[in-house]
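Appendix B, example 12.
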Amino acid sequence: MLLQRVKPLARILAEGANQDQGLKRSLGPWALTAMGIGAIIGTGIFVLTGVASATRAGPSLTVSFVVAGVVSALAALCYAEVASKVPISGSAYTYTYATMGEFFAWIVGWGLVCEYALGASTVSVGWSGYFTNILQNLFHVTIPMQWQHSHWDPTPGIANLPAAGIILLITALLVKGTRESGTVNGIIVTIKVAVVLFFIAIGIGHINPANYHLAASPATGEGGFFPFGWEGMLGGAAFIFFAYIGFDAVSTTAEEAKNPGKDLPFGIIMSLVICTALYIVVVAILNGMVPFNQLNVPNPVAFALNQVGLTSAGLVISFGAIAGLTTVLLVMMYGQTRVFYAMSRDGLIPPMFVALHPTFRTPWISQIVFGLLIAAAGAFFPIGILGSLTNMGTLVAFVLVSCAVPLLRKNHPDFKGTFEVPFGPYVIPVLSAITALGLIFYLKVGNPTWWGIPVVWLWFVLWLLIGLAFYFSYGRHKSTVALEEAEGLAIRQPRVN
């Protein structure tokens, strides 16, 4: 019985078709693509590339990005199929509810909360670093160190106030509505991509090929292109996987897309292709400009330009990083509340999270509550813990969405979406699930352990146990499907065509 409670797909589609009470459809294909690019390009390229190169992969980080890109591409194909067939707010949570049942849907939804909420907290910490650097170097304004760092940072402080501040500003913007936030996002994405192309154009002329094959030493490992071996390269792929988080956020906008059947697959795949190409080129240039062991800094792209004497260009990149991280925050916080909107509509969490603002028609209570929680996490927790947990939540969701593809085809063979993964219902979904599990395994590289077990695994299990306790004490008894079963009103899964 635990695994048999499936939400009827016909009702899921009917909820999304309710234009009087549902969310406003205002997003076209290129708006969705811009949203995906806004979510993907940010922390990974502007912050984490340096740490990944210096501590895990070295110059082979270019291969790491290819590996992580392939894993994301396989998952993107699965997301595109289920999003075209189930164009409803809630992303992987809704897809799983329609195919694998309520129990697994709760696990996915709880994992997505981890991804979006803690991911936004992670990005806010990186945003704070660039912001304080610009204040100091350009305007000669210095925020006291105790208000730039949390207690757990290497440089201990009290709270990271800039990180909390940007979260609260984004929260206010999202309460106002998707049309306004979408316009701001489109402008900033254009600036950000221009800045990335600027770095490519400037940096390519300062590549030193010798940096790709440094001699072996305590600081450079075994030297060469793979200084930490293949395990280091795969560990780098697991670590910088954070750089690809975001394309799935496009699927959370299903109820606000003008033509979700066509626009969602386009937005998901196009944003991923564009960002993967940019990542590979930028990382190759970065490792060619500066020896990888010098890149363990919070601003590696600007740092590389400064090292070759292009200080003014480094300042331009810093502003681009601020723009990039801001759009990532925008999309992650947008996606998180849409997942809770879907879960609240299903009765799995309290009904206040489904309440829409009477004027803006946005889930404003959810946005404010989680804005405050995300701001607190960004202010008081270190970036390493936040980022690792974000990766775990995302990869778990990838595995279950991959499983949803063959189940959706089997249970609803009559329901044809506008996109289907090639090579049948098993090849790509199975590869997607296996490769995502592989990255979960390699998250252990470079992370601390307790009793021989990576801390990131233990913290995620704790998060999952808290979620399951809430599900069995509240959600399982309050869900709309459960109430129908109790009243004898549950119906067989209907045909959708």
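The radius of gyration is 22 Å. Residues 22-444 form a domain with the Amino acid/polyamine transporter I fold (CATH 1.20.1740.10).
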